[in-house]
């Protein structure tokens, strides 16, 4: 058992090893942490840099702020400084770190001062720490400086301590991911002395700083925060060392924190508090927003919620949005399903009477939390009462016109009640006022419907309950009627509004689902890549009302494949798209990278990697996408990436099929050519060898047979090479037809001469009419066509079988037929006999490459004619070629 206890946890060990491998692929970050300006962070960083340089490390100064301090400027001597980039902003030149210059220099180590600095507008990243992350991703080690007050999770704590709200902050995950944190400490008294001596700020600035920020109490508190933060970092490293080496120690169960946020600005305070508590407990934490139907369409609320959830992600937590009808049940259900141990909620700050009427979410969470611990965080003092911290489903409609319409609706109900008053008892008129409340709830909203309920009760009492035209009631039974009317009206109003809001939210989700389904269906039916990219462009324009562009990768570069007419491409837009493609992260508008861009660029990711970028540009710079629209746009980008990837894979598969067919054709050609070349070469070589042998006595007849055999095989080889050259000319389009009027009888006679020896054993019949006209043709080419056709007929005919040659006129064409009495052509092969390297495999003794008929077809078609094959009745094959009697137009012939 002791040995098992000492064994390290394999899962934890694997996670540590993987994290270490990822860390080794990136640069290493060391932060010199201080509690205030002037404690010596920059000096300590430069001093460490000189030590590393003495060790032979290649380093540069990417950005160091000396603030006019002579000792700091002296430490810069001997270090290479990368010139800073000058940014023009509102007529002022601002120096900023040149990330591209540092990346081009590729040092081993870069020095970066003031990590939380906000870059000038127009820079690639809003914050300097994001520039540093890019350097780390490129494998460059970085030394950086940071003050404790710039951590986002401590922002409100520092504001309470010093009374100064720090605007330049960075997420805590930056310091959590550092390789090393070195605390630069200086007693507050010495720091104040340095401040008075002008070694931190100039005298005027120093006096103001001492009065507002550099007070002994403030500095002591900040110093403690910095020491605690550095100590926690050391503790994290120590525990990691213990876990990887199985050193025994207390390992309590891991806590999981859940913080419930709302659209109230105070939700950011909850997020920061959750981050601090999670860090102290070393626990995972999540920010949860329950989206109620009443809040789904309020733009201001959605923007605030988006900022709060984004802050949670920047601080290292997870951000979750869930739809629900009530906050407490949805939050507790999520907490139970995800093993949450502690729940953080905001202390209610709305009036007590509203909690009594509508209940308290905090009380409900505490009652139903069970074993889950609940932490209630108070709001900031001075906050206006009535602004609920927790999300509520009640939100009055602000347009006062609706309240006026509610008033008119109650007036119309009163008028109708007055008209029917003689026909009904007063208590029956209650239904008319209930109807007005329902109508107000369905069409005007919750606030106007509540007003209609109260006004309805008052109007009923004033106009129809004795004594009329007064609010006095003589019959106490009417008090029960009033109470029932008011309660039923309020309940019906609330239920009707909820149903309406839920229907609107469902309709909105249905529209988004329908848009995504429509895109998926159309992309599935699209085949070509061009069709797919234009479908995506059109759907983005129709769904979001925005111009779009799609860049696709072309090697290491991006090429715009399609874009909307209103999307004007320029170098800046191409640069932002290239950054999104290279890093695989969104860039441009409403992102952390180049947010000043007028378009948002989303990388198109597939399992093969990033294949392109989708850019979306609004028609008005003031139009921003809502959170649900951003999620829908990201879904669009995912579907687009899958469709484009599918089209590219289909193109690659088609190219692979073409290559496979080409390889088969090449194999067939090599097999055929190698056999048909080898046979005549072997025969010629054998004949010449026998003739060359001195010890072999040959008579004249034998010698004549050997020479004749060599000559025939040489002619056969010559025809083979000629066929190959002719086919190459035909496929390359280099075949030129020199037409002239020729006598068909002369062409047929010229074709018979090379075959006289073979034709002697076969009866030959030639049928040419006396009035056969002259036909425009290339005499040499057409002679070769007839030679190939006659040779083919001789090959596939048995010895002694007749061969017939016939010429005649058919309409505007001259036909020439070559017929034999061989075995014929299988019906399934009639269309294929003119293909390259195809032969009818019937008589086993027939040899050849299968190019003869293919060459005939190419030459006949070059004349503007046609050729086809049929089987004859009684056996045999019939090949017919048709040539036009008139010289065709060259354009038509080219077609």
What does this structure look like?
Helices cover 51% and strands 16% of the residues. With 895 residues, it is an alpha/beta fold. It has a five-stranded parallel sheet with strand order 2-5-6-1-7, sandwiched between helices. Strand 23 and strand 24 form a beta hairpin. The longest helix is centred in the last third of the chain and has 66 residues, at 627-692. Mean pLDDT is 78; it is low at 1-6, 248-253, 380-398 and 890-895.
Compute the CA-based radius of gyration: 45 Å
Strand content: 15-25%
Q: Decide which structural class fits the backbone.
A: alpha/beta
- Give the strand order of the largest sheet, numbering strands 1, 2, ... along the chain: 2-5-6-1-7
Largest sheet: 5 strands, parallel
CA-CA gap between termini? 88 Å
> Ranges with pLDDT <50 over ≥5 residues?
1-6, 248-253, 380-398, 890-895
Average pLDDT level: 78
Helix content: 40-55%
Total DSSP E strands = 24
Number of helical segments?
Answer: 29
What spatial form do the alpha-carbon principal axes imply? flat
In summary, what is this structure?
It contains 29 helices and 24 strands. By secondary structure, the chain is of the alpha/beta class. Strand 23 and strand 24 form a beta hairpin.
Features:
895 residues; alpha/beta; five-stranded parallel β-sheet; 24 strands; 16% strand; flat; disordered N terminus; disordered C terminus
Please write out the topology.
Blueprint: H1 2-6, H2 10-25, E1 29-34, H3 41-54, E2 59-63, H4 70-75, E3 85-89, E4 92-96, H5 99-105, E5 109-112, H6 128-137, E6 141-147, H7 155-162, H8 172-176, E7 180-183, H9 188-196, H10 203-212, H11 216-244, E8 256-261, H12 267-281, E9 284-291, H13 299-314, E10 318-323, H14 327-337, E11 342-346, H15 352-358, H16 361-368, E12 373-377, H17 400-420, H18 430-443, H19 446-464, H20 477-525, H21 529-544, E13 547-554, E14 557-563, H22 571-583, E15 587-588, E16 600-606, E17 609-617, H23 627-692, H24 700-732, E18 740-742, H25 744-752, H26 756-759, E19 764-767, E20 775-777, H27 779-795, E21 803-810, E22 813-820, H28 852-862, E23 866-871, E24 877-884, H29 890-894
Parallel strand pairs: 1-6, 1-7, 2-5, 5-6, 8-9, 8-11, 9-10, 11-12, 19-21
Antiparallel strand pairs: 3-4, 13-14, 13-17, 15-16, 16-17, 18-20, 21-22, 22-24, 23-24
Helix pairs in contact: 12-13, 14-16, 17-18, 17-19, 18-19, 18-20, 19-20, 20-21, 20-23, 21-23, 23-24, 24-28, 25-27, 27-28
């Amino acid at each position: 058992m002791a040995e098992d206890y000492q064994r390290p946890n394999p899962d934890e060990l694997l996670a540590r090893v993987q994290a270490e491998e990822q860390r080794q692929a990136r640069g290493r970050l060391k932060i010199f942490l201080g509690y205030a300006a002037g404690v010596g962070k920059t000096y300590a960083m430069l001093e460490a840099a000189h030590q590393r340089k003495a060790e032979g490390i290649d380093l540069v100064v990417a950005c160091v702020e000396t603030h006019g301090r002579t000792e700091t400027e002296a430490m810069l001597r001997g270090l290479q400084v990368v010139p800073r980039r000058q940014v023009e902003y509102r007529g002022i030149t601002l120096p900023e770190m040149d990330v591209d210059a540092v990346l081009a220099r590729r040092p081993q180590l870069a020095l970066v001062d003031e990590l939380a600095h906000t870059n000038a507008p127009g820079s690639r990243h809003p914050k300097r720490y994001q520039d540093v992350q890019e350097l780390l991703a490129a494998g460059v080690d970085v030394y950086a400086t940071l003050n404790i007050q710039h951590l986002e999770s401590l922002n409100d704590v520092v504001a309470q301590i010093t009374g100064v709200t720090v605007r330049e902050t960075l997420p805590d995950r930056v310091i959590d991911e550092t390789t090393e944190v070195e605390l630069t400490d200086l007693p507050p008294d010495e720091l104040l002395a340095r401040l008075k001596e002008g070694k931190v700020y100039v005298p005027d600035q120093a006096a103001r700083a001492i009065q507002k920020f550099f007070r002994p109490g403030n500095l002591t508190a900040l110093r403690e925060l910095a020491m605690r933060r550095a100590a926690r970092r050391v503790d994290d490293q120590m525990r990691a060392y213990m876990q990887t080496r199985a050193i025994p120690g207390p390992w309590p169960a891991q806590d999981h924190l859940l913080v419930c946020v709302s659209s109230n600005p105070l939700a950011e305070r909850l997020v920061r508090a959750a981050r601090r508590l999670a860090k102290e407990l070393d626990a995972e934490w999540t920010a949860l927003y329950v989206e109620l139907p009443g809040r789904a369409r309020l733009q201001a609320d959605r923007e605030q919620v988006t900022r709060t959830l984004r802050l949670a992600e920047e601080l290292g937590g997870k951000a979750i949005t869930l739809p629900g009808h009530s906050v407490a049940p949805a939050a507790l259900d999520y907490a139970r399903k995800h093993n949450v141990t502690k729940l953080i909620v905001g202390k209610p700050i709305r009036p007590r009477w509203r909690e009594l009427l509508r209940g308290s979410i905090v009380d409900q969470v505490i009652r139903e939390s069970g074993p889950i611990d609940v932490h209630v965080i108070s709001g900031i003092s001075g906050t206006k009462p009535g602004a609920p911290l927790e999300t509520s489903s009640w939100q009055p409609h602000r347009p006062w016109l609706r309240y006026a319409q509610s008033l008119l609706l109650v007036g119309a109900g009163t008028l109708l009640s007055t008209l029917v008053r003689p026909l009904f008892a007063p208590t029956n008129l209650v239904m008319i006022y209930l109807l007005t409340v329902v109508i107000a709830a369905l069409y005007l909203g919750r606030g106007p419907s509540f007003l209609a309920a109260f006004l309805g009760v008052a109007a009923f009492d004033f106009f129809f309950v004795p004594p009329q035209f007064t609010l006095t009631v003589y019959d106490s039974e009417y008090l029960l009627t009033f109470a029932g009317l008011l309660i039923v009206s309020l309940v019906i109003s609330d239920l009707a509004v909820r149903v309406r809001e839920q229907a609107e939210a469902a309709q909105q989700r249905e529209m988004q689902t329908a848009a995504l389904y429509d895109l998926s269906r159309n992309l599935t039916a699209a085949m070509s890549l061009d069709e797919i990219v234009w479908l995506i462009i059109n759907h983005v324009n129709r769904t979001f009302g925005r111009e779009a562009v799609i860049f696709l990768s072309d090697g290491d570069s991006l090429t715009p494949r399609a874009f909307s007419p209103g999307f004007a491409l320029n170098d800046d837009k191409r640069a932002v798209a290239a950054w999104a493609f290279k890093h695989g992260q969104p860039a441009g508008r409403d992102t952390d990278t180049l947010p000043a861009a007028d378009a948002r660029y989303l990388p198109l990711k597939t399992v093969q990697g990033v294949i392109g970028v989708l850019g979306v540009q609004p028609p008005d710079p003031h139009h921003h996408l809502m959170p649900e629209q951003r999620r829908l746009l990201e879904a669009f980008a995912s579907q687009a990436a899958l469709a484009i990837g599918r089209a590219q894979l289909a193109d690659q598969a088609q190219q692979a099929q073409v290559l496979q067919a080409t390889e088969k054709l090449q194999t067939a050609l090599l097999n055929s050519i190698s056999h048909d070349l080898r046979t005549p070469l072997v025969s010629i070589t054998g004949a010449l060898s026998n003739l060359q042998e001195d010890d072999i006595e040959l008579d004249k007849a034998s010698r004549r047979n050997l020479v004749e055999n060599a000559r025939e095989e040489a002619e056969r080889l010559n025809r083979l090479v000629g066929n190959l050259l002719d086919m190459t000319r035909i496929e390359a389009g280099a075949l030129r037809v020199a037409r002239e009027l020729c006598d068909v009888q002369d062409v047929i006679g010229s074709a018979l001469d090379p075959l006289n020896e073979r034709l002697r054993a076969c009866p030959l019949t030639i049928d040419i009419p006396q009035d056969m006209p002259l036909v425009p043709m290339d005499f040499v080419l057409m002679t070769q066509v007839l030679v190939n056709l006659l040779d083919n007929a001789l090959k596939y005919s048995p010895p002694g079988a007749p061969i017939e040659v016939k010429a005649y006129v058919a309409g505007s064409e001259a036909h020439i037929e070559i017929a034999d009495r061989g075995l014929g052509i299988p019906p399934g092969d009639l269309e294929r006999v003119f293909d390259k390297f195809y032969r009818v495999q019937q008589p086993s003794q027939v040899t050849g490459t299968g190019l003869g008929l293919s060459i005939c077809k190419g030459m006949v078609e070059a004349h503007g004619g046609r050729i086809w094959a049929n089987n004859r009745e009684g056996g045999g094959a019939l090949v017919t070629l048709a040539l036009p009697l008139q010289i065709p137009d060259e354009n038509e012939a080219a077609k």
